[in-house]
TrEMBL record:
The chain crosses the membrane at residues 12-30, 98-120, 132-152, 179-198, 237-265, 285-309. This is ABC transporter permease. Residues 96-302 form the ABC transmembrane type-1 domain. It is a multi-pass membrane protein. Its main location: membrane. It comes from Candidatus Segetimicrobium genomatis. It comes from the Bacteria. It is found in: Cell membrane. InterPro entries: BPD_transp_1_N, MetI-like, MetI-like_sf. Signal peptide: none annotated.
Length: 316
């Protein structure tokens, strides 16, 4: 197992290098740039723009700038924001706890709700409950995330005054209870897509296992239905959903960009969205690398979970 993990780590580094190269090239060759906002400002002369371009190193070829950026990344220096002038790593460290809290809450919420819903749908196939859950899952997949977030704000916060509209804390209250009240709606908006997806994959996997001979044999022996589902069906149905859960680490991070913007959540999503609007290359590359790293790590964790769930799988 250790040799497999080491091999995957080497592959992950090579893949991250390729992603960074392609991403930096596309970003640098795209029309516009960090200084485009100054082009239509009559108070900023072309000489000042040229001076600023030279100070930021934008007058150099993109591959030389990429080499300098990559060298700094290896040394733990992610560059400085073009917009604020602050170190990128410092800005990420300030926003990381808020984003991690939101992602973890959405993941736990999806985990807690999707499994009972998936088991219920599989054990009551084609019942009114199964049909209702299927309809709800299809509705969630077709529903725009920002629309759902706005509807929650209008109903739960504006009309019924049950939850705060936005933010992470009230100005005069930093308690854990206040954090949970502010976290409820963003976590639900971020996690509802995973709830729909995971429950459907679990239902599909359980239906396939329920038709196997060993399951019918377990029922024929007189084992209780709950025990058959828990010990024989559920565990053997987890492989497909484990893959989806690993991939959803990246999806949760990407979805945080929209969710944090709707609810004013001070996390990395809002930071990287501002970087896109401002053409802040160092921050853009940081967001790309974090997102790619989450995708690669999620895949690795899913592969390792395979060996835990299925004893037949051995990694060399």
């Amino acid at each position: 197992m250790s040799s497999y993990v080491a091999k995957r780590a080497v592959q992950a580094c090579a893949l991250l290098l390729f992603v960074s190269l392609v991403g930096y090239a596309i970003m640098s060759l795209a029309p516009g740039g960090p200084l485009a906002v100054y082009l239509h400002n009559p108070q900023v002369t072309p000489e000042k723009i040229d001076l600023l371009r030279h100070q930021l190193g934008l007058d150099r070829p993109w591959y030389l700038r990429y080499a300098a950026w990559l060298g700094g990344l290896v040394r733990g220096h992610w560059g400085y924001s073009y917009y604020t002038g602050r170190p990128v790593l410092e800005m990420i460290a300030e926003r990381l706890p808020a984003t991690f809290t939101l992602m973890l809450s959405a993941f736990i919420l999806a985990l807690v709700l999707s499994f009972p819903l998936g088991v219920l749908a599989a054990t009551h196939k084609y019942s009114w409950g199964d049909n209702l859950l299927s309809l709800g899952a299809f509705f969630v997949w077709a529903m725009p995330t920002f629309w759902f977030g706005l509807m929650l704000q209008m109903t739960l916060a504006v009309r019924w005054h049950l939850l705060p509209v936005a933010g992470i804390h009230d100005l005069d209250n930093n308690s854990a209870r206040d954090l949970l009240r502010h976290l409820a709606m963003p976590a639900l908006v971020l996690g509802i897509g995973s709830i729909a997806s995971w429950s459907r994959y679990l239902r599909s996997g359980m239906l396939e296992v329920l038709s196997q001979d060993y399951v019918r044999t377990a029922y024929a022996k007189g084992l209780p239905a709950r025990r058959v589902v828990r010990r024989h069906v559920l565990r053997n149905s987890l492989l497909p959903i484990v893959t989806i859960m690993g991939l959803d680490l990246h999806v949760l991070f990407s979805g945080a960009v929209i969710t944090e913007s709707i609810f004013g959540w001070p996390g990395m999503g809002r930071l990287f969205l501002a970087a896109l609007n401002n053409r802040d290359y160092p921050l853009q590359m940081a967001g790309l690398m974090v997102s790619a790293a989450l995708l690669i790590v999620g895949n690795l964790l899913a592969d390792l979970a395979y060996a835990v769930l299925d004893p037949r799988i051995r990694y060399q």
